[in-house]
Write a structure and sequence with these properties.
This protein has 222 residues and is mostly helical. The protein is built from eleven helices and no strands.
């Protein structure tokens, strides 16, 4: 079922937007934010009922949605949302998948995380292919201002917070041109894949921590 859901999404995006990469990425990023909203909704609801509290999971998933928001803002600045039909399709699919992932997360959290691992894996492959095929053209174009603000000039706390696979030096991307921007987005998607994989592990309920929480636990006592 998970592969079917992902397969339908990938088929629609790849078929409808075969020759329109920026609108395709706009639709992909609109939908990619939604499962994190679903996770947050269920986590908040469970905490409200007093069932359990997972503050680290809330923080990491919010950081992931914040990262995906900036991917979306970059695609909007590049003109991916200019046509109303693209906005309509993206938002319609996003609304549908929001409720699907809500139900899935309530019934089987691991399956919900596996769904997003596959979606983020597809996003990584899509960006990687686009970079390979358009490297020279992208290197000749300037980076959008929103990308510079997010990756270089902004508060990088939330940027660090979703990268649960980073154990040594924090990642500080370059933003010198549009090629760098797409490299950064591609690498972000890989970090999401790692986080979704970590959330599926058997002992994740007890051991999964946000990067900053983990750093505090590992810090030597002075």
């Amino acid at each position: 079922m998970i592969r079917l859901l992902v397969g339908v999404l990938v088929f629609v995006i790849n078929t409808v937007y075969r020759d329109r990469p920026i609108p395709r990425f706009y639709v992909l990023e609109t939908v990619a934010r939604v499962p994190y909203f679903s996770y947050l909704s269920v986590l908040h609801f469970s905490e409200t009922l007093g069932l359990w509290r997972k503050s680290d999971w809330l923080k990491v998933h919010f950081a992931e949605s914040w990262n995906e928001l900036h991917h979306l803002l970059i695609m909007e600045e590049l003109g991916g949302d200019k046509m109303w039909i693209d906005r309509f399709l993206a938002r319609s699919v996003a609304l549908l998948y929001y409720w699907i992932v809500i139900i899935l997360y309530v019934i089987h959290p691991k399956a919900a995380y596996n769904f997003m691992e596959l979606v983020e894996g597809h996003a990584y492959d899509s960006y990687n292919k686009y970079l390979t095929e358009n490297a020279d053209e992208l290197k000749a174009q300037p980076a959008p201002q929103i990308a510079i603000q997010y990756y270089r000039d902004g508060d990088l706390y939330m940027f660090d917070e979703f990268q649960t696979g980073q154990k040594l030096e924090p990642r500080r991307p370059s933003v010198n041109n549009l090629y760098d921007v797409f490299v950064n987005i591609r690498d972000d998607e890989q970090e999401h894949v790692k986080t979704m994989f970590a959330c599926q592990q058997t002992n994740a309920q007890l051991t999964f921590k946000s990067p900053h929480s983990q750093a505090q636990l590992e810090a030597p006592i002075s």
